[in-house]
What does this fold into?
Amino acid sequence: MITLLEAHALHHRFGRTAALDDVSLTLRRHEILAIVGESGSGKTTLLNALSGRLTPQRGDILYDDGGGPRALASCGEVVLRKLQRARWGYIAQDPRSALRLDISAGGNIGERLMASGARHYGDIRAIATHWLEAVEIDPARLDDLPRYFSGGMLQRLQIAATLVTAPELVFMDEPTGGLDVSVQARILDLIRSLVRRLGLAVVLVTHDIGVARLLADRLIVMRHGRIVESGLTDQVLDDPHDEYTQLLVASVLPA
Amino acid sequence: MQGYNFAYLDEQTKRMIRRAVLKAVAIPGHQVPFASREMPLPYGWGTGGIQLTAALIGPDDVLKVIDQGADDTTNAVSIRSFFARVAGVRTTTRTTEASLIQTRHRIPETPLRADQIIIYQVPMPDPLYRLEPSRPVARRLHAMVDYGAMHVKLYEDITRFGRVAVSYDHPVMVNQRYLMSPSPIPAFDNPKLHRSPALQLFGAGREKRIYAVPPFTSVVSLDFEDHEFNPQRAPQTCALCGSTTSYLDEMVIDDQGGRMFACSDTDFCEQQRQAQHDHAA
Amino acid sequence: MAYVAVKGGEVAIGAAHAWLARVRRGDPSLPQIDAVQIEAQLGRAVDRVMAEGALYDRHLAALAILQAQGDLIEAAFLLRAYRTTLPRLIDTEPVDTGAMRLHRRISAIFKDLPGGQRLGPTTDYTHRLLDFERPEPEPVITTIARTASPAPRATDLLGAEALLEPDPSGTGEPADLTMAALGFPAGRDLRLQTLARGDEGFLLALGYSTQRGYGNTHPFVGELRVGEVAVAITPPELGFAIEIGDITLTECQMVNQFAGSKAVPPQFTRGYGLCFGHADRRAIAMALVDRSMRAEDLGEDVKAPAQNAEFVLSHCDNVEATGFVEHLKLPHHVDFQSALETIRAMRRDAEASDARL
It folds into this structure.
């Protein structure tokens, strides 16, 4: 498998706290990588660095768009924004912060298409309708404002609005974090089936071992800004070597 | 006028403005910051346009000033008399006679020529300001050609009203690169911006920006392939000259809802009537 | 130098007041200004102080301006403090601005309309060139024509076509800001009362912010009118209204383009400004902010400062604001001493933990 994204020796400090302390990793095409750890472990800083939202103080991030690996830091803001607008996606924990609540569901889904040059109103609507169906929202809600949507529907809409440009790499920050347990399970199912069907590569941040077990091929465990353990998800969770990972796994009730 | 330089501004300030104009012409549609000065008319009255006019006008120029298309509206009269006073130049109401035309909210009906400059007064130079009020953020969006939000706005209009609800200041793409505010001209006037032989300059005094559309530059009103830009004019006929193609003002003539429609471009209306008169004679 | 304990406040205050009186008087070789002159020649300052002082009395406002050395917020404060001492005898009937004897009436939305456009005594089209000629030559006295018949409101002409929403103000007994504390949510009656006496600079800045994209309201000045209206009261013993005098008011009817929402169809909506005296800026700004604060009622997203009614209303009173901002210069050394000790303790802790690392 070909490497899509690579991080080398990332370092980043916030004041006296080391948020990233010598972090390296690789992500392959079509692979789902989970970053787990408790809050303050540096996992969100790592996600922000990998997705180009934060420039780490030291270290390199390389992305291979098919033409060979290229350092994000050297590709410039214009190229980076283009990547973020089409080939990459970012799914935030709070869909309200990512969506435009005063713009219809269709407009929200259409935004990334239009930003990438789509100029046919009818086509944009047809694609938006298709995506509402794909995330199991009634297509009759196409012209409704998301302001009146439930939390679960908002998250589905954010997923549709992100995947509409067929990205190859999606970053997810606690995508089910703010939802009721019953809704969480359905959203996780949806994410799992879409990710497999579309062959996406995903970097997923979660503090929930259960979410990682369900979605991820590989797993890294972070603590105090360092990677304390990494490997195939089942291996790490069934046979944790690091003391902290053992604690983390033990604290989860058996399924 | 004694005690003041020709055309009010000092020569240094004029040069500063001309440099901004040159840059603006070199990058069509891009908003160039300039050190806008306080003028003896308030911000909002056309200080950007006045500064451009002051920086460009020479003793041989013939100046026309219109507001809402008309030469006789109070603000147009005021600005014209200002330049007559501080520059002593010849003024005119005839579009064809003018070498410099300063305008607020209209483009004359009479097509402009290559030896004319039209100066627009601009209140809000950034077409994105309603979607993104922060100017530093909007500037980045321009740099990244990130205009998706503007199309989302048009998408929403069509979805909710079946048409684009922007009736004036309809945003345009200049030279396939910069999204630009045409100033609050009615959408009806937008097509006149496209490949105009005249140099078109835009001045926003309060917001301290100058931008330009050089002669024969492509200016395309934002739309969708299947919902083409379709500007509106009142379907009536001008009550004075009978024009069915010019942009019309609506006037209330009584308190029973009586209305009258007449050309907003007073010079055009006058010329039409003159031509009819000559023809009849 | 020996330490001098800060005592003897009374002497200091007495000396400060004597100095203030001298500064206020200025060069004694120059004639004193009289309040009558201020009333006659600084009319706009008088208007502003009456509005922010929430008391219509030209002479008292002029007196306050003089006493405050031209500091208009201080003058409004003086007027408010005086107003406190006045009993409220009776409520007037609502004034009828439609019957206003007009000095000025302009509409930005029609080129012409019944009743005509009337500029009145405006600086709108003057060229702002400092005039060094003093004293000013006496102006030529011309007879000022007044419109005999009242002009219809431009907004009524629009409303006839149902393109403009009906006036959203209620019909019941209005709330009274002077008799009860401002509470939230505040109805439009309370909001308008608060704005009418709000700080002109604050209203101006907020109104301006909406025009620059922070809560845009797509405004058009439907009509701005200035003139005199009759004030009438209905004494209970008479049972009918009698006119007791005239006041000068400025009224702005804003017409705002509105795309509609789930609850309201596309139409023009209203913003309203009304204030004492001749004050275009205040009335227009007030109308912008009034419309902005209706965002929530009209189903618009509330994002910008001017749309947040609680924020706007809680901070627009300049007598309250100046008091609290300026009170920072009063002694706070007891609080400061405790802050000092806390910072010292926190730094000690931080240094100790650094040393452990």
